Amino acid sequence: MHAHAQEAWPFPRIPANTYKLRSLCASIHHRGDTLEKGTQTIFATTLGAVLLLVGVIGLFTDGMLLGLFGVNGLHNAVHLLSGAIGLWAGVWGGTSASRMFNRIFGVIYGLVAVLGLLGVGVVMSLLNLNAADNWLHVLIAAASLVVGFGKWD
Questions:
Q1: d(Cα 130, Cα 111) in Å, to the nearest integer?
Q2: How confident is the model over 22-64, as pLDDT tens digits?
Q3: Residue 147: which H helix or E strand, with range?
């Protein structure tokens, strides 16, 4: 190939041997877990995306999200981390990872909700929780547990 021909094409060339890509796709397909979008993956993906969005928006508030929910830096970090994990589970992890996320998330958020409703001071002040946060956590935990422990794929 002539030197001037290479200069005319400014983009990197894709190697003719795509064995690694085919191998990766085959391993995803044959790992015994489906990447189809069922209830578990849709729920984990949706919850993850919403939590990420809430975490990002919370970074630009003055302690109150939508004028109703208390947030602070740690609360936002929890939203961002749990949202990223949920999104990963739903988009790349498949059904079993999504089911596991939904179950663990439901248990942890349920615990946070109970501690908040009981008024445990360290949890309330550490995460800047208020009554609206607590009841929202109850609803989210309940939905996560119903989906995670349900019979849906």
A1: 15
A2: 554 454 444 444 445 799 999 999 999 999 999 999 999 988 8
A3: helix 131-149
Strand 64-65 to 69-70 pairing:
antiparallel
Element (H, E) at 124: helix 121-127
What's the CA gap between 47 and 34, in Å, rounded?
Answer: 20
- Other residues' Cβ atoms within 10 Å of the Cβ of residue 22: 10
Q: How far apart are the first and last CA of the chain?
A: 53
With a CB cutoff of 8 Å and minimum separation 6, the contacts of 35 are 28, 41, 94
Structure tokens belonging to residue 94? 């498949």
The domain locations on the chain are 36-149
Q: Residue 74: what residue type?
A: L
In the chain, % helix, strand, coil (3-state, to 5) comes to: 70, 5, 25
| CA neighbours closer than 13 Å in the CB half-sphere of residue 10 | 0
Give the dihedral sign, CA 116/52/55/131.
negative
Full-model pTM:
0.74
Query: Among candidates 145, 137, 134, which has minimal Cα distance to 106?
Result: 145
Residue whose tokens read 């849709």 = 42
